[in-house]
Automatic annotation (TrEMBL):
The keyword Protease does not apply. Residues 510-697 form the Helicase ATP-binding domain. Residues 821-979 form the Helicase C-terminal domain. It comes from Phaeodactylibacter luteus. CDD domains: SF2_C_SNF. Keywords: ATP-binding, Coiled coil, Helicase, Hydrolase, Nucleotide-binding. One of its GO terms (molecular function) is ATP binding. Residues 943-971 form a coiled coil. Signal peptide: none annotated. This is DEAD/DEAH box helicase. The keyword Disulfide bond does not apply. It holds the Pfam family Helicase_C.
C-alpha cells in the first residue's frame, strides 16, 4: 500500500476534436492534443493533433482515429476551397465561395455529411468534443456532453386573418422548452446536430436551420400568401415526425390502426441494431411507448392546409406489442426492442432475428422497413447451410453450400469474412447478407486452421475435433478411432508387468498410433513414461511386421557388425524408430530397453565413432541419439522415414527459433511422440512447439497462435480461449500426476538414474583412477593399516570426482554431469509442487547444491552433523510446515535416522553408500507411518565410475564394503578385490 504520494505523475494526454464557427452557417473541426490534470480532466492544449504528432505523446493511431483525422483534413478551409472553387486557376477564399448561394448549398451538404460522421464516430468511441476552445483556457470547461436521447420538435400553429402564427419548441427528457430560452446553435442542417448549453443533441426529426428563426423570439408570423409554400418547403416533412397543435384549421379525425411498422435502427452509442416499433395511423405514426394519445399532421387540398388528427387505439396496439414479445422480443433501452437474451456484444442480433422471423412477421401483418448500413442495403432473409466432409488419408475435404433467399454460393466464400470478423457478405444483387453470429463463432476455427482448395476446405486429420464440434460424422469417426485401444494387450516380448495407469497410457498411445496421430505423454516424473513408450514400440514393430512378410521372433538383441549382409533386411524387419533425448538419458534408455524389451535392437547413435552409413542405421529397431547429434546429423537422418520419432524431455525443443527445433521438424516419421513432465515450462509457446512436432499445424502458425491464444490467455486470462485451446490439444496430451494414480502405485518406488560425466570430469576421473590403481597394486600390503587407509582415501577421491570434481579439485571451474541432472530433476519436481529430501555422504556435495539454490532464489532446509539438536528440530519443523520449502539438504549420517519428514514424497540419494542399510534408513525418513503419498526414491549413479561398483557391492559384496569403510583396521581383502574396485 502506498502511504505517501510522490510527485512523479507522468502527464497523460487525450485527443480532442474542437468545433469552431467559421462563418455563415458553417462549423468546422480541429484536432488537438490536450493534457490531463491529476484528476484525469482535460487541461490545456499542447498542440494540434495530426497522425504524425500523436505518437510522441504516447497516443496510438487506431483505425478510428485515422478516419477522424481524414475527416478533419477534408473539412479544412483550404481543402474546401480546392474542392468547390469553380475556377481552379483563380484563388478564391472559402468566405467568398459561401456568398454564392448554389456553391454554398453544395458546401453545406458536403460538410454537414462529414461532420455527422465525425460527431457520430467520436460519440460512439467516447472521444471528447469541445466547443470553440482556446489555448489560454481549460479545455474541460468547453467539453460538449453528448445526450443519448434525440431532441423532439413540437410545432404550434394558429390561423389568423393576416396569416398563421407559428412556434417551434424542442423537447428533451426534462420536458418541452422554447428555443429562445437557451443557447441553441445548429451545427449541421441534415442530419441535424444541435448545440444546447454545452450539450450535444441529435435532432433527426428536423432540419437544423429550422431553429434559427427562434433563437431570439418564440414565434414567427407566416403571411397568408406564403402559408402553403412555407408549409410545403419547411414544415411538411417535419410534421410527420413531430407533435403538432393547431387552431383555426379544418380537422379530420382518424381512429383506425393502419399498420405496425418495424424499423431497424442502429444505436449510435452502443453500436447495436435495435427495432423501433411504430403504430401507423392515417397521416401520423407513434412510437409504441409514446405517451401521447393523439397526434396532429398536415394535408394539402388546393391552397388550403388541412389538419389530420389521429386518435390512438391502445387495445389494438397492445395486441401487436404482445405478439412481438411472444415471438421472442423484449423491450430494452430507449423503448427499443431486442431479441430476448441478446448480449451487448452482438450488434447484429436484432437483424438476425428479423431474418429468421421475416415470413412470420409479414404473415402477422407487420410492415418491415428496408435497412441499410453505411449505404449498403442489407438482405434480411433466413440463411441455411449444408456441409459434408470426406477423409483422404491424413486430411479432410470439407465442402458446403450456403443458401440465402434466392441466392446460393459455396461455403468457402465466407472464409475471409469470418476470419476477419466482417459479418457483411456481398450478394450478386448488390445487397449484403449478415453472417449469423452463431456461424461466426461456430465456423471460425475451421477457416483459421483449414486451407482453401478449389471450392472446399482442406483440414488436417489432427483437427478432427473441429468437425466433431459442428456435428459432422467424419470427425466422430476419427474420435472413435483415436480412443484408447481397450482390447490392446502388451506384447509377450515385454518383460514387465504394467500398472493399471501404465496400461491405460499404453492403450491411449496405441489408439493414436492406429489413427496415425501424434501424442504427448506428460506424466509426472517417475510414473514410467519410458516403459509405456517401449510397450508401444513393441506393438508398432508387430504391426509393421504384419504389413511385411512375417511376425517378429523373440531373440536377444545383438550388435550388428559393419559388414552384416544386406539381404537379411527382410528377415530382421527392423522397426526403424528414432528416440532423441538429452545426453544424460541415453544410457538409461538403453538399459531400460535391454531390461524390458530385449528383442528390440537398439543402437546408441552418439560419439565420434557413430555410424554414418544409412544402410546400417536402417537395420536397427531403435536409434538412440541426442538433440545435438540429431542437429549435426540432420542430413543423414532425413534419409530415413522412421516408423516412430520419440522426443524425451521434449521441452528441449520449446524454442521455436532454435536450430534443434527446425532440424527435428524436418525429420520424416510416420508416427510422433513427445515425452515431458513439463510440457509448459514458461509460456504457452512451449506447448505450441510440442504440438507442432507431434501434429504439425495443429495450432496454426506461431504468429497466429500468439495472436489467437498467447496474448488473450496470458495477458487477459480469456476463459473462452483457454477452453478452445484445451479442446484442440486434449486429444493428444495425456498427463497423470502422482496423486491421480496413487491407488495404482506401491507405497515406495526405488529407481536408479545413470548420469554421464562431462568430458573434463571424465578426464580427471580416469587420470586419478589409473594413478590409484597402479600405486595400490604395485604396493599391495593388505596387513598394513596405512595401506588400507590409502585404499579408503583413493576410493573417496574417486567418489568425489564422480559427484563433482570441485569437491576434490578446488580450482575446478567446469561442469558435472550428475550435478546438472539432479538440478533438472529438482526443477521438474518443484514445478509439480512436490517436496524432496536430498541425501549425500559429503557435506561438501550438499554445499554445492546449497549455493545453486541460493543463486536461483529457491528456499531450502539444511541439516548436517555440525548442528545442535535445537537447530535440527527447527529445520525439520520448518520443512514439514512451510509449503515454500521444497528441498531439504541432509547429510546421510546426520539425518539417516530419527527424523520424521513425511511432507516429502521424493528422496534423492545423491551418492551411493557402501552399506545399503544406510540408504534404506534415509529413504525411511519420508516413507514411514504418517505418509499419505506415494514415495519415489531416486539413486543418482555416475556411469563408468566407482559408484557402479558400489551398487554391485551392495548386492553381492556388502560384507567387503562394510569392512573397508566401517572397519579399516581389521579389513581383509585380496588383490583381486582391489582390481575389481579400481578396474
Amino acid at each position: 500500500m502506498q502511504l505517501f504520494q510522490t510527485d512523479t505523475h507522468k502527464a497523460a494526454h487525450q485527443i480532442v476534436f474542437d468545433l469552431y464557427h467559421f462563418g455563415a452557417q458553417l462549423h468546422l473541426p480541429t484536432g488537438y492534443i490536450v493534457s490531463e490534470d491529476r484528476d484525469g480532466l482535460l487541461a490545456h492544449i499542447r498542440q494540434k493533433a495530426l497522425p504524425e504528432t500523436i505518437g510522441s505523446f504516447g497516443l496510438p493511431l487506431s483505425p478510428t482515429l485515422s478516419r477522424l483525422f481524414q475527416l478533419v483534413e477534408e473539412l479544412q478551409p483550404k481543402a474546401l476551397e480546392a474542392r468547390f472553387k469553380p475556377n481552379k486557376r483563380k484563388k478564391t477564399t472559402l468566405e467568398e465561395l459561401l456568398t454564392d448561394r448554389d456553391i454554398a448549398r453544395s458546401i453545406y451538404k458536403y460538410a454537414h455529411a462529414r461532420l455527422d460522421e465525425l460527431l457520430s464516430t467520436a460519440v460512439k468511441h467516447q472521444i471528447a468534443i469541445t466547443w470553440q476552445v482556446e489555448r489560454t483556457v481549460l479545455a474541460k470547461d468547453f467539453v460538449l456532453l453528448p445526450q443519448p436521447a434525440p431532441l423532439e420538435p413540437r410545432l404550434f400553429f394558429k390561423r389568423e386573418t393576416q396569416g398563421v402564427r407559428y412556434r417551434l419548441q424542442l423537447e428533451d427528457e426534462h420536458g418541452t422548452w422554447p428555443i429562445s430560452s437557451k443557447d441553441v446553435v445548429p451545427i449541421t442542417n441534415h442530419p441535424a446536430w444541435i448545440f444546447v448549453d454545452y450539450q450535444l443533441f441529435r435532432a433527426p426529426a428536423i432540419n437544423g436551420h429550422m431553429v434559427l428563426p427562434f433563437q431570439k423570439k418564440e414565434e414567427v408570423i407566416i403571411p397568408q400568401k406564403s402559408v402553403k409554400t412555407y408549409f410545403q418547403k419547411f414544415i411538411l416533412k417535419v410534421a410527420a415526425k413531430s407533435e403538432i397543435e393547431a387552431e383555426g384549421f379544418e380537422v379530420t379525425q382518424h381512429q383506425e390502426l393502419s399498420s405496425c411498422i418495424l424499423e431497424p435502427i442502429r444505436d449510435i452509442f452502443s453500436g447495436r441494431w435495435a427495432l423501433a416499433v411504430y403504430m401507423q395511423y392515417p397521416g401520423s405514426k407513434f412510437l409504441w411507448s409514446d405517451r401521447r394519445e393523439k397526434k396532429t399532421s398536415l394535408e394539402f387540398e388546393g391552397e388550403e392546409v388541412r389538419i389530420l388528427q389521429a386518435q390512438r387505439q391502445p387495445g389494438a396496439e397492445h395486441e401487436k406489442v404482445e405478439l412481438l414479445k411472444a415471438m421472442g422480443l423484449a423491450a430494452g433501452e430507449h423503448a427499443h426492442f431486442y431479441p430476448e437474451g441478446a448480449q451487448p456484444d452482438t450488434p447484429y442480433a436484432t437483424l438476425e432475428w428479423l431474418s429468421s422471423h421475416r415470413a412470420a412477421l409479414q404473415a402477422a401483418g407487420f410492415q418491415l422497413l428496408p435497412v441499410a448500413e453505411d449505404g449498403q442495403q442489407l438482405y434480411l432473409h433466413p440463411p441455411s447451410i449444408s456441409l459434408s466432409a470426406g477423409q483422404d488419408n491424413d486430411w479432410f475435404d470439407l465442402k458446403g453450400v450456403v443458401t440465402v433467399g434466392e441466392f446460393s454460393f459455396p461455403f468457402i466464400k465466407l472464409a475471409k469474412y469470418i476470419r476477419d470478423r466482417q459479418p457483411l457478405f456481398p450478394l450478386p444483387n448488390g445487397a449484403y447478407f449478415i453472417i449469423p453470429q452463431e456461424w461466426m463463432a461456430r465456423y471460425k476455427s475451421l477457416f483459421q486452421f483449414g486451407s482453401r482448395e478449389k471450392d472446399g476446405l482442406k483440414l488436417a486429420k489432427s483437427h478432427f475435433t473441429l468437425l466433431k464440434e459442428i456435428g459432422l460424422g467424419a470427425g466422430e469417426e476419427v474420435e472413435e478411432e483415436r480412443q484408447p485401444a481397450t482390447d490392446f494387450q502388451p506384447s509377450p516380448l515385454l518383460k514387465a508387468s504394467l500398472r493399471p495407469y501404465q496400461l491405460e497410457g499404453a492403450r491411449w498411445l496405441v489408439g493414436l498410433y492406429e489413427s496415425q496421430l501424434g501424442a504427448c505423454l506428460a506424466d509426472d516424473m517417475g510414473l514410467g513414461k519410458t516403459l509405456q513408450t517401449i510397450t508401444v514400440l513393441l506393438h508398432a514393430k508387430a504391426q509393421k511386421a504384419q504389413r511385411g512378410s512375417s511376425a517378429p521372433q523373440e531373440r536377444p538383441a545383438q550388435q550388428l557388425g559393419l559388414f552384416a549382409p544386406a539381404e537379411d533386411f527382410d528377415t530382421l524387419q527392423p522397426l526403424q524408430s528414432l528416440i532423441i533425448l538429452p545426453a544424460s538419458l541415453v544410457f538409461n534408455w538403453e538399459a531400460e530397453i535391454r531390461k524390458f524389451a530385449p528383442s528390440l535392437q537398439a543402437y546408441r547413435h552418439t560419439g565420434p565413432k557413430r555410424y554414418k552409413d544409412i544402410r546400417l542405421l536402417s537395420r536397427f529397431d531403435v536409434l538412440l541419439t541426442t538433440y545435438q547429434t540429431a542437429l549435426r546429423d540432420q542430413e543423414l537422418l532425413e534419409q530415413i522415414e522412421f516408423e516412430y520419432i520419440v522426443l524425451d524431455e521434449s521441452q528441449y525443443i520449446k524454442n521455436k527459433d532454435s536450430k534443434v527445433f527446425r532440424a527435428i521438424n524436418q525429420l520424416q516419421g510416420r508416427h510422433r511422440l513427445s515425452l515431458s513432465g513439463t510440457p509448459i515450462e514458461n509460456s504457452l509457446s512451449d506447448l505450441w512447439a510440442q504440438m507442432q512436432f507431434i501434429n504439425p499445424n495443429l495450432l496454426g502458425s506461431f504468429n497466429f497462435f500468439q495472436k489467437e491464444f498467447i496474448r488473450p490467455i496470458e495477458k487477459l486470462q480469456d476463459e473462452d480461449k483457454k477452453a478452445q485451446l484445451r479442446r484442440l490439444v486434449s486429444p493428444y496430451l495425456l498427463r497423470r500426476t502422482k496423486e491421480e494414480v496413487a491407488k495404482d502405485l506401491p507405497p515406495l518406488t526405488t529407481k536408479t538414474f545413470y548420469c554421464e560425466m562431462t568430458a573434463e570430469q571424465k578426464r580427471l576421473y580416469e587420470r586419478e583412477k589409473s594413478a590409484a590403481r597402479n600405486y595400490l597394486l604395485e604396493n599391495y600390503d593388505a596387513a598394513n593399516p596405512q595401506f588400507r587407509f590409502k585404499v579408503l582415501q583413493s576410493l573417496t577421491k574417486l567418489r568425489q570426482l564422480a559427484n563433482h570434481p570441485k569437491m576434490a579439485v578446488e580450482a575446478y571451474a567446469k561442469g558435472s554431469g550428475k550435478f546438472e541432472d539432479v538440478l533438472e530433476h529438482m526443477d521438474t519436481i518443484r514445478r509439480g509442487g512436490h517436496k524432496v529430501l536430498l541425501f549425500s555422504s559429503f557435506v561438501q556435495h550438499l554445499e554445492l547444491f546449497k549455493a545453486a539454490f541460493e543463486a536461483q532464489q529457491q528456499p531450502y532446509a539444511w541439516l548436517t552433523g555440525g548442528q545442535a539438536s535445537q537447530e535440527r528440530e527447527k529445520a525439520v519443523q520448518q520443512f514439514n510446515e512451510d509449503p515454500s520449502l521444497g528441498a531439504f539438504l541432509i547429510s546421510i549420517k546426520a539425518g539417516g535416522t530419527g527424523l520424521n519428514l513425511t511432507s516429502a514424497d521424493y528422496v534423492f540419494i545423491l551418492d551411493p553408500w557402501w552399506n545399503p542399510t544406510t540408504e534404506q534408513q534415509a529413504i525411511a525418513r519420508a516413507h514411514r507411518i504418517g505418509q499419505d503419498k506415494h514415495v519415489m526414491a531416486i539413486k543418482f549413479i555416475t556411469r563408468g565410475t566407482i559408484e557402479e561398483k558400489i551398487l554391485k557391492l551392495q548386492e553381492k559384496k556388502a560384507r567387503l564394503a562394510e569392512d573397508i569403510i566401517e572397519n579399516v583396521q581389521q579389513a581383509q581383502f585380496s588383490k583381486g578385490d582391489l582390481e575389481y574396485l579400481f578396474d
